[in-house]
Amino acid sequence: MYYGYGYGYGYGMDPMYILVIIMAILCMVASYRVNSVYRKYNRVRSMSGMTGAQVAMEILRRNGVSDVTVQHVPGDLTDHYDPRTRVVNLSDATYGSNSVAAIGVAAHECGHVMQHQNGYLPLQIRSALVPAANIGSKAGVPLIILGMFLSISPLITIGIWVFSLAVLFQVVTLPVEFDASHRALVMLEEYGILGHEEVSDSRKVLSAAAMTYVASAAAAVVQLLRLVMLNNRRRD
Hints:
Zn_peptidase_2, mainly alpha, Peptidase, transmembrane helix, transmembrane
Protein backbone atom coordinates (compact mmCIF):
# COMPACT_ATOMS: atom_id res chain seq x y z
CA MET A 1 0.00 0.00 0.00
CA TYR A 2 1.25 3.48 -0.79
CA TYR A 3 0.44 6.76 0.85
CA GLY A 4 0.15 10.15 -0.74
CA TYR A 5 0.78 12.17 2.41
CA GLY A 6 3.48 14.69 1.59
CA TYR A 7 4.24 14.40 -2.08
CA GLY A 8 7.77 15.52 -2.21
CA TYR A 9 10.70 17.64 -1.33
CA GLY A 10 9.76 21.10 -2.58
CA TYR A 11 8.00 20.65 -5.90
CA GLY A 12 9.69 17.36 -6.84
CA MET A 13 8.51 13.83 -6.46
CA ASP A 14 9.42 12.13 -3.19
CA PRO A 15 12.32 9.81 -4.14
CA MET A 16 11.24 7.29 -1.50
CA TYR A 17 7.82 7.09 -3.15
CA ILE A 18 9.52 6.27 -6.46
CA LEU A 19 11.62 3.63 -4.69
CA VAL A 20 8.49 2.06 -3.18
CA ILE A 21 6.99 1.81 -6.68
CA ILE A 22 10.19 0.23 -7.98
CA MET A 23 10.15 -2.30 -5.14
CA ALA A 24 6.52 -3.16 -5.92
CA ILE A 25 7.44 -3.78 -9.55
CA LEU A 26 10.38 -5.97 -8.47
CA CYS A 27 8.03 -8.03 -6.30
CA MET A 28 5.76 -8.63 -9.29
CA VAL A 29 8.73 -9.53 -11.49
CA ALA A 30 10.04 -11.95 -8.83
CA SER A 31 6.62 -13.57 -8.52
CA TYR A 32 6.35 -13.97 -12.29
CA ARG A 33 9.88 -15.34 -12.40
CA VAL A 34 9.32 -18.07 -9.81
CA ASN A 35 6.13 -19.22 -11.53
CA SER A 36 7.86 -19.24 -14.91
CA VAL A 37 10.90 -21.17 -13.66
CA TYR A 38 8.70 -23.63 -11.76
CA ARG A 39 6.56 -24.32 -14.83
CA LYS A 40 9.70 -24.92 -16.91
CA TYR A 41 11.31 -27.42 -14.55
CA ASN A 42 8.01 -28.99 -13.57
CA ARG A 43 8.12 -30.51 -17.06
CA VAL A 44 11.53 -32.10 -16.39
CA ARG A 45 11.00 -35.56 -14.88
CA SER A 46 13.57 -36.86 -12.43
CA MET A 47 15.52 -40.00 -13.27
CA SER A 48 14.59 -41.53 -9.91
CA GLY A 49 10.87 -41.25 -10.68
CA MET A 50 10.17 -40.36 -7.04
CA THR A 51 7.32 -37.98 -6.30
CA GLY A 52 7.56 -34.97 -4.04
CA ALA A 53 5.73 -36.85 -1.28
CA GLN A 54 8.04 -39.86 -1.58
CA VAL A 55 11.11 -37.64 -1.47
CA ALA A 56 9.88 -35.84 1.63
CA MET A 57 9.20 -39.13 3.42
CA GLU A 58 12.58 -40.52 2.34
CA ILE A 59 14.45 -37.47 3.64
CA LEU A 60 12.61 -37.66 6.96
CA ARG A 61 13.36 -41.38 7.22
CA ARG A 62 17.05 -40.91 6.50
CA ASN A 63 17.27 -38.30 9.22
CA GLY A 64 15.45 -40.41 11.79
CA VAL A 65 12.45 -38.06 11.96
CA SER A 66 9.41 -40.13 12.87
CA ASP A 67 7.13 -37.51 14.42
CA VAL A 68 6.59 -35.43 11.26
CA THR A 69 3.97 -36.41 8.69
CA VAL A 70 3.63 -35.49 5.03
CA GLN A 71 0.22 -34.48 3.73
CA HIS A 72 -1.41 -33.11 0.58
CA VAL A 73 -2.88 -29.58 0.58
CA PRO A 74 -4.79 -27.91 -2.28
CA GLY A 75 -3.34 -25.20 -4.48
CA ASP A 76 -0.12 -24.58 -6.37
CA LEU A 77 3.06 -23.55 -4.54
CA THR A 78 1.20 -23.56 -1.22
CA ASP A 79 3.85 -25.88 0.20
CA HIS A 80 4.93 -25.21 3.78
CA TYR A 81 6.11 -26.87 6.96
CA ASP A 82 4.01 -26.26 10.07
CA PRO A 83 6.21 -26.69 13.16
CA ARG A 84 3.18 -26.51 15.47
CA THR A 85 1.49 -29.58 14.01
CA ARG A 86 4.72 -31.17 12.75
CA VAL A 87 3.36 -31.56 9.24
CA VAL A 88 5.02 -31.06 5.86
CA ASN A 89 2.26 -29.77 3.60
CA LEU A 90 2.79 -30.34 -0.12
CA SER A 91 0.63 -28.72 -2.78
CA ASP A 92 -1.09 -30.20 -5.83
CA ALA A 93 1.91 -29.32 -7.99
CA THR A 94 4.38 -31.02 -5.63
CA TYR A 95 2.81 -33.94 -3.80
CA GLY A 96 2.32 -36.38 -6.67
CA SER A 97 4.76 -34.92 -9.20
CA ASN A 98 8.11 -36.52 -10.01
CA SER A 99 9.59 -33.40 -11.61
CA VAL A 100 12.89 -31.89 -10.47
CA ALA A 101 10.94 -28.75 -9.49
CA ALA A 102 8.52 -30.64 -7.24
CA ILE A 103 11.33 -32.66 -5.67
CA GLY A 104 13.30 -29.48 -4.94
CA VAL A 105 10.32 -27.85 -3.27
CA ALA A 106 9.55 -30.96 -1.20
CA ALA A 107 13.17 -31.17 -0.06
CA HIS A 108 13.11 -27.46 0.80
CA GLU A 109 10.21 -28.01 3.19
CA CYS A 110 12.13 -30.88 4.75
CA GLY A 111 15.01 -28.42 5.14
CA HIS A 112 12.72 -26.50 7.48
CA VAL A 113 12.08 -29.71 9.39
CA MET A 114 15.83 -30.15 9.84
CA GLN A 115 16.11 -26.56 11.04
CA HIS A 116 13.41 -27.27 13.60
CA GLN A 117 15.10 -30.48 14.69
CA ASN A 118 18.46 -28.75 15.08
CA GLY A 119 17.16 -25.67 16.85
CA TYR A 120 18.23 -23.31 14.04
CA LEU A 121 18.22 -19.88 15.71
CA PRO A 122 16.77 -17.75 12.87
CA LEU A 123 13.84 -20.19 12.62
CA GLN A 124 13.25 -19.92 16.37
CA ILE A 125 13.29 -16.13 16.13
CA ARG A 126 10.89 -16.17 13.18
CA SER A 127 8.50 -18.52 14.96
CA ALA A 128 8.53 -16.28 18.04
CA LEU A 129 7.77 -13.26 15.84
CA VAL A 130 4.70 -14.79 14.16
CA PRO A 131 2.04 -13.41 16.58
CA ALA A 132 3.61 -9.93 16.62
CA ALA A 133 4.10 -9.97 12.84
CA ASN A 134 0.43 -10.85 12.29
CA ILE A 135 -0.60 -7.90 14.43
CA GLY A 136 1.90 -5.64 12.72
CA SER A 137 0.75 -6.51 9.20
CA LYS A 138 -2.92 -5.99 10.08
CA ALA A 139 -2.86 -3.10 12.56
CA GLY A 140 0.29 -1.12 11.75
CA VAL A 141 -0.85 0.72 8.62
CA PRO A 142 -4.41 1.44 9.88
CA LEU A 143 -2.94 2.97 13.05
CA ILE A 144 -0.61 5.16 10.98
CA ILE A 145 -3.40 6.32 8.68
CA LEU A 146 -5.70 7.00 11.62
CA GLY A 147 -2.97 8.90 13.42
CA MET A 148 -2.32 11.07 10.34
CA PHE A 149 -6.04 11.68 9.82
CA LEU A 150 -6.55 12.72 13.44
CA SER A 151 -3.15 14.45 13.70
CA ILE A 152 -2.18 12.32 16.71
CA SER A 153 1.58 11.91 16.57
CA PRO A 154 1.87 9.23 19.31
CA LEU A 155 -0.62 7.06 17.41
CA ILE A 156 1.46 7.37 14.24
CA THR A 157 4.59 6.40 16.16
CA ILE A 158 2.86 3.37 17.67
CA GLY A 159 1.67 2.34 14.21
CA ILE A 160 5.19 2.58 12.82
CA TRP A 161 6.61 0.45 15.64
CA VAL A 162 3.84 -2.12 15.20
CA PHE A 163 4.39 -2.22 11.43
CA SER A 164 8.14 -2.64 11.98
CA LEU A 165 7.43 -6.02 13.61
CA ALA A 166 5.99 -7.29 10.33
CA VAL A 167 9.04 -5.92 8.50
CA LEU A 168 11.39 -7.60 10.97
CA PHE A 169 9.62 -10.91 10.37
CA GLN A 170 10.24 -10.63 6.63
CA VAL A 171 13.91 -9.80 7.15
CA VAL A 172 14.43 -12.74 9.53
CA THR A 173 12.71 -14.99 6.99
CA LEU A 174 15.57 -14.51 4.50
CA PRO A 175 18.27 -16.60 6.25
CA VAL A 176 15.63 -19.22 7.12
CA GLU A 177 14.64 -19.70 3.48
CA PHE A 178 18.17 -19.62 2.07
CA ASP A 179 19.39 -22.14 4.65
CA ALA A 180 16.44 -24.49 4.00
CA SER A 181 17.24 -24.47 0.28
CA HIS A 182 20.91 -25.15 0.94
CA ARG A 183 20.05 -28.09 3.19
CA ALA A 184 17.61 -29.41 0.57
CA LEU A 185 20.11 -29.40 -2.28
CA VAL A 186 22.80 -31.04 -0.16
CA MET A 187 20.43 -33.83 0.90
CA LEU A 188 19.12 -34.42 -2.62
CA GLU A 189 22.62 -34.97 -3.98
CA GLU A 190 24.02 -36.76 -0.94
CA TYR A 191 21.13 -39.25 -0.85
CA GLY A 192 21.29 -39.84 -4.60
CA ILE A 193 17.71 -38.70 -5.11
CA LEU A 194 18.76 -36.37 -7.93
CA GLY A 195 21.77 -36.45 -10.23
CA HIS A 196 24.21 -33.55 -10.42
CA GLU A 197 22.47 -31.86 -13.37
CA GLU A 198 19.06 -32.41 -11.78
CA VAL A 199 20.27 -30.76 -8.57
CA SER A 200 21.36 -27.79 -10.69
CA ASP A 201 17.83 -27.54 -12.13
CA SER A 202 16.28 -27.73 -8.67
CA ARG A 203 18.67 -25.03 -7.50
CA LYS A 204 17.31 -22.70 -10.19
CA VAL A 205 13.77 -23.25 -8.92
CA LEU A 206 14.68 -22.66 -5.28
CA SER A 207 16.81 -19.62 -6.14
CA ALA A 208 13.91 -18.05 -8.04
CA ALA A 209 11.64 -18.70 -5.06
CA ALA A 210 14.19 -17.13 -2.71
CA MET A 211 14.20 -13.94 -4.77
CA THR A 212 10.52 -13.42 -3.99
CA TYR A 213 11.41 -13.28 -0.29
CA VAL A 214 14.27 -10.88 -0.98
CA ALA A 215 12.04 -8.58 -3.03
CA SER A 216 9.25 -8.64 -0.43
CA ALA A 217 11.66 -7.90 2.42
CA ALA A 218 13.29 -5.06 0.50
CA ALA A 219 9.89 -3.56 -0.35
CA ALA A 220 8.80 -3.77 3.29
CA VAL A 221 11.98 -2.08 4.52
CA VAL A 222 11.62 0.73 1.97
CA GLN A 223 7.99 1.26 2.93
CA LEU A 224 8.91 1.41 6.61
CA LEU A 225 11.64 3.98 5.90
CA ARG A 226 9.18 6.07 3.88
CA LEU A 227 6.66 6.03 6.71
CA VAL A 228 9.34 7.11 9.19
CA MET A 229 10.44 9.93 6.89
CA LEU A 230 6.86 11.10 6.36
CA ASN A 231 6.32 11.17 10.11
CA ASN A 232 9.55 13.10 10.70
CA ARG A 233 8.67 15.66 8.03
CA ARG A 234 5.21 16.02 9.52
CA ARG A 235 6.78 17.01 12.84
CA ASP A 236 9.07 19.62 11.24
